[in-house]
Design a protein that fits this description.
Layout: E1 5-10, H1 21-29, E2 32-36, H2 37-43, E3 52-56, H3 61-73, E4 77-82, H4 92-101, E5 111-115, H5 120-128, E6 129-130, E7 136-140, H6 148-160, E8 164-168, H7 177-186, E9 195-200, E10 208-213, E11 226-230, E12 236-238, E13 241-243, E14 250-253, H8 281-290, H9 293-300, H10 302-316, E15 334-341, H11 351-361, E16 366-369, E17 375-380, H12 384-393, E18 397-399, E19 405-409, H13 412-415, H14 421-431, E20 440-445, E21 459-464, E22 467-472, E23 485-491, H15 493-510, H16 517-524, E24 526-527, E25 530-531
Parallel strand pairs: 1-4, 1-5, 2-3, 2-4, 6-13, 7-8, 14-15, 19-20, 20-21
Antiparallel strand pairs: 8-11, 9-10, 9-11, 12-13, 15-17, 15-18, 16-17, 21-22, 22-23, 24-25
Helix pairs in contact: 3-4, 6-7, 8-9, 14-15
């Protein structure tokens, strides 16, 4: 007798367009198909006349699994179908349980293959927007096989941990209280305005999609074919879609020239429709009233926290604002990243400037000194505009980080060589912080000694005998690192800034994302009349250390 085979097939939401190719071929392989009557009807168009189809009711899963194993042990290819994914509240687990009871082993028993499909959390989320962009869980409200006390504990834990939650099997003709209890539990941790999506029969003929709130969700039709997706404390509604940000800590930097908003404006609530910000006074009051006593204390304690922060601000001269927490006490932090330097030519920080920096960064921020003669700051704050303003008032240069232009100048012999400094300042004002395909350094040296290594940067400028020499395309890192190609000497001071602007414009327009400037120069061969020349390939000796 030939060896039988069990194909545990997840066919997705039910439309043929969302059926995987492997699921389709697995159905074709089967001699026997077992499934819930509704599921068999959904794939009936794929079945052949000679295939034996065994249909059963919703509560006959165990018998269906036992029959599937019995048929496979007779040497048949048997398909057990589940909507969504067979391994997510599907038949895969039950079939394996039956096999385990019979002492099945993979080496000697029938062959088993689990064919994955699109689960309801995924198909329904796609119709709602992007609600499952952060940690999420699925919980079935059916207590047919799981005690309700355990289900309630899981809902409570998921609510406390701020998971996005997908509720499967939320309600049936006989089970009506479970979804009500789930709502009651979650309102202890989440605002009544938390977005909720109700998707019924996703991608089937009778598809229904409703976007509502946690407080209002029971006023809509919910049944066994409905999947309920409940957002976390960051989920928001935008243009009718549920959107959950990728992370709790949102990172921001000063912007490039293409930004429509000024750097500090990016963190303002009115300019971030995709993020869930502090609740207004009214909704915050409603959340407190709907929460049990311990949750209420978490929210009310914010006033004490605000007073403490205000006291620290008076002590260190730094103001911190605290966002109003959700009922779970969760606050979505906003991380502001930027760079600070005393100036283009100036390399000296005063004691007052150092104290200001230390006070602003505080215990929770970080400050790293970089080879670019800058401090890189990462700072949790709700007031970036105030941070930027205070630093600039203290005479510090505040700059963006990331794929932007950084101008690196020498100290011009401690400021004694004054002639080239205005050009360095102008380049910084026009090009510093500009968005480019990949981070770029413009090195600027005030004399022919080039002691600050301008020729080793993506673009090097050397002021010599009253004019400028230009170097392009240095490879700044790696064992094959090399200086930039000297492309021009004796450029008139009145021409240097315009020339740089044109070179950068070409790079911005034609450069590929994340393409370093030296690779770009090599690829396009010519820029502003300067022709690329191959760099001699060095002979590399075996490295004495490293990888």
């Amino acid at each position: 007798m030939k060896r039988g085979k069990l194909l545990l097939i997840g066919f997705g939401p039910g439309s043929e367009a969302h059926l995987t190719m492997r699921a389709r071929t697995a159905i074709e392989e089967c001699e026997v198909i077992l499934g819930y009557t509704t599921y068999v009807d959904l794939i009936r168009g794929l079945l052949r006349d000679e295939q034996v189809v065994m249909q059963a009711g919703m509560t006959e899963e165990v018998g269906r699994a036992q029959e599937a194993v019995r048929q496979a042990e007779q040497g048949k290819v048997v398909g057990v179908i589940s909507s969504g994914d067979a391994g997510v509240y599907g038949m895969a687990g039950l079939v394996y349980e039956v096999l385990m009871e019979k002492g099945w082993t993979e080496a000697d028993g029938v062959e088993v293959e689990v064919v994955p499909g699109i689960s309801a959390i995924n198909s329904c989320a796609s119709l709602l927007g992007a609600p499952v962009m952060h940690d999420a869980c699925t919980i079935s409200l059916s207590d047919h096989l799981t005690p309700w006390e355990l289900i309630a504990k899981r809902i409570d834990a998921a609510g406390a941990a701020d998971f996005v939650i997908a509720l499967y099997n939320p309600k049936s003709g006989r089970r009506t209280r479970q979804i009500e209890e789930a709502q009651r539990i979650l309102l202890q941790y989440r605002s009544p305005d938390t977005p909720v999506g109700l998707v019924k029969s996703a991608y089937r003929d009778r598809q229904s999609v409703v976007v509502t709130t946690l407080a209002d969700m029971l006023n809509h039709d919910i049944g066994m074919l409905t999947t309920v997706i409940i957002g976390n404390n960051s989920t928001c509604l935008y243009d009718g879609k549920m959107i959950t940000p990728r992370g709790y800590q949102r990172k921001y930097t000063l912007g490039s020239e293409k930004q429509t908003l000024a750097p500090h404006q990016r963190l303002r609530e009115e300019n971030e429709p995709w993020a869930l910000h502090s609740m207004d006074e009214q909704s915050g009051t409603e959340a407190i009233q709907s929460a049990p006593e311990q949750k209420r204390e978490q929210v009310e304690s914010l006033s004490a926290r605000a007073l403490a922060d205000e006291a620290l601000g008076c002590l260190y001269g730094v103001k911190e604002s605290v966002a109003v927490a959700s009922p779970s006490g969760f606050v979505q932090e906003q991380i502001f990243e930027f760079a600070v330097s005393p100036g283009v030519a100036n390399k000296k920080l005063s004691a007052a400037q150092m104290m200001l920096l230390a006070g602003i960064v505080g215990e929770r921020g970080s400050m790293d000194y970089t080879p670019d003669h800058q401090f890189r700051i990462s700072l949790p704050t709700a007031n970036p505009d105030e941070v930027v303003s205070r630093l600039r008032e203290a005479g510090l240069l505040v700059l963006p980080v990331g794929n932007v232009i950084t101008v690196k100048a020498c100290d011009f012999c401690d400021g004694e060589k004054t002639d080239p400094i205005p050009y360095a300042d102008e380049i910084q004002a026009l090009l510093g912080g500009m968005d480019v395909p990949k981070e770029m350094k413009i090195g600027f040296n005030g004399c022919g000694m080039a002691c600050y290594g301008a020729v080793k940067e993506d673009i090097g400028i050397v002021f010599r005998q009253g004019k400028f020499d230009l170097f392009l395309g240095a490879k700044t890192v790696g064992r094959t690192a090399h200086a930039g190609q000297p492309v021009a000497e004796g450029i008139e001071p009145a021409e240097i800034v315009g020339l740089l602007e044109r070179i950068i414009a070409v790079y911005k327009e034609q450069g590929h994302p994340n393409e370093r400037f030296h690779k770009f120069f090599k690829r396009i061969k010519q820029i502003e009349g300067f022709v690329y020349e191959e760099v001699p390939i060095p002979v590399l000796a075996e490295a004495a250390c490293g990888e």
